[in-house]
Amino acid sequence: MTEAAKKLPRIEINAKFCKGCSICVDFCPTNVLEIRGTIVAVKDLEACTRCQLCDLRCPDFAIQVFD
Amino acid sequence: MSTDAKPAKKQKLSVPFDYSKYLRKDKLPHIWCPGCGHGIILKALLRAVDKVGLEKDDICMVSGIGCSSRTPGYVDFNTLHTLHGRAPSFATGIKLTNPELNVIVTTGDGDALAIGGNHFIHTCRRNIDMTILVYSNAIYGMTGGQFSPTTPIGSFTHTSSYGAMEPPFDTCEMAKAAGATFVARATSYHVQDLEKTLKAAIEHKGTSVVEILDECPVYFGRLNKMRSASQMMEKIEKEGTVSVKQAENLSPEEIGGRLLRGILHHDTETAEYCDQYAALTERAQGK
User: Fold this and answer.
1) Which parts of B244-283 are beta strand (E)?
2) Rounded distance, CA B162 to CA B141, Å?
3) Are the Cβ atoms of B217 and A67 closer than 8 angstroms?
């Protein structure tokens, strides 16, 4: 698969729900996320493998990964 | 042989689970502190309920008092918020009068084991069909961080400034000894295992007790040199537990002080309370 054809996932963050606990940031296997200010933000979308561990471990219904 | 001949590894399609169909959206965001594991357990429970294929009206969720007992407030099932520690007793009444309902009790370690200790063990003794989830964060979070019956020896809390000196309960051993027919331990770190365990617990006919280790970063972590929720999950849940499968190949010395994780006891032989009660009613009516 060429770089150009590689489809990037879409990470949706609900800024109203995120409490900035940083569980998703600390346990992301490929370091996609970071804490920016008080809530989570996407740092490196290309590294995302769609494993959904951030969604599964988020206690606040604040992050979801769409294909 | 060139690597091109191998079939390309299929990318797993990422479709996130739609939690909104089970939630009372107007109640969110929830009141739990940043990093609290209760939200992780709630999400795993909703996914497990979806996998079992239950309708919202088929479930009744009962809780007592405490942080964990806020759970029914956020789910769109039949819900009941009751007295401190008495949730299993209310649930017994609900199950006996509506045997077709799937009753789920959400309770904390202090709620189930201290104030509700008797109610908990007698519910286990009857083997009535319900799922009791004990959210075990080793602290009373809602009232300001007092030590609970599962606080490990030496842990610092607001009421044990020199370290807790009482030996903690082993929730799973107690439930098993009291007569629960499905006993399991899970953690909020191992989310996929948690979901599978909850599914098995809901599907089991009889009293299912699942102790879920989770974290209270605000009242437990801060006072015990674990500054974030992630550190607590790493130290208590990941390093502090070992799965039942892994433990088979380990000696007791290698397991050390780690807790076992997984389904610890599963008995499908013992008769369920509602069935016995129905049989008794028929006998008494001379049918």
Assistant:
1) 259-266
2) 19
3) no
Name the CATH topology of B31-284: Rossmann fold (3.40.50)
Tokens 């617990």 found at = B201
Helix (H) or strand (E) holding B119: helix B117-126
Tens digits of per-residue pLDDT, B62-80? 999 999 999 999 999 999 9
Per-residue pLDDT tens digits for A4-61:
567 888 999 999 999 999 999 999 999 999 999 999 999 999 999 888 999 999 999 9
- Find out whether B210 and B192 touch, Cβ atoms under 8 Å: no
* A19 → closest Cβ in B15, B34, B42: B34
What domains are defined for chain A?
Answer: 10-66 (3.30.70.20)
Query: Given an 8 Å threshold on Cβ–Cβ distance, is A67 in contact with B228?
Result: no
Segments making up each domain of chain B, as ranges: 31-284
What are the residues of chain B with a beta carbon less than 8 Å away from any beta carbon of chain A? Answer: 8, 11-17, 19, 23, 28-30, 32-40, 42-44, 188-189, 191-192, 217, 228-230, 233
Give strand pairing partners of B146.
B140
Q: Going by DSSP bridges, is the β-strand pair B59-63/B139-140 parallel, antiparallel, or unpaired?
A: unpaired
Looking only at the bridges linking them, the beta strands covering A39-42 and A33-36 are: antiparallel
**What is the predicted ipTM?**
0.91
pLDDT at B13: 56
